[in-house]
Amino acid sequence: MQRAFAVAVLASVVCAVVGSFVVLRGMAFIGDAVAHAVFPGVAVGYVLGANLAIGGAIAGVVTALTISVVSQNRRLKEDAVIGVFFAFAFGLGIVLISTQSTYTGDLASFLFGQILGLSDGDVITVAVVGAVLIAATLLLRKELVTVSLDRETAAASGLPVFWLDTALYVMVTLAIVISLQAVGNILVLALLITPAAAARMLTERLGVMMLLAAAIGVACAVTGLYVSYYYNLASGGLIVLALTAVFAGCWVAAPRYGLLGRRRQRVRSLATT
Against a cut of 0.85, is the pTM above it? Predict the structure, then answer.
């Protein structure tokens, strides 16, 4: 349980920081695509008896780089390119897995999460990779914001848009890979997107948004683990349910941008007129 809490907290913070830029840019689909893109790497690792996480990371990074290169053709929108490689990667993984007659617990844990099966080495890996990702994200913060708000202006000002796109894709991939054992391949998108989306409802400032997203992610991860422990339920699913509940609360009750907040603003506007 101690290792589970450590990885859940670390993964939540990393996904919140990286996910804030994903939400800001309106490219949540890339998170889903990368989460599925790691699947063929997992399948190869499973077939060869190698480390599943390393195989998934390699496949995810290769797919992310491919998407970054192909999406430079402005004739195609980024979401179309992501959709193409999302389907290709998942299809390839299914074909590779179909060559095996049996499935193992390792593969199932990769797909659905197995946070109670973590080792000390897993905790160290998540901590080191997470620290590098947070440092890289903060280092590139201004450039990533500029590209997110206006790609054409960013390119005209001399920013390396292609390399910034590539850096973001790779960071998303690594954030997803280190979170897979917490919530699994199927649910990892929620850890990347939902806390940042909830925080987006509460503030306009990116720094505050990242802090709020991290706090939401950590609180929900801890809550999900505790409920899982006491009621013997799936921890990954409970973490996602907790995150979604917080997002729903923010969507309704956020002071300025929530449903009730906007309604109060409309009433005040009508009253003044």
Answer: no
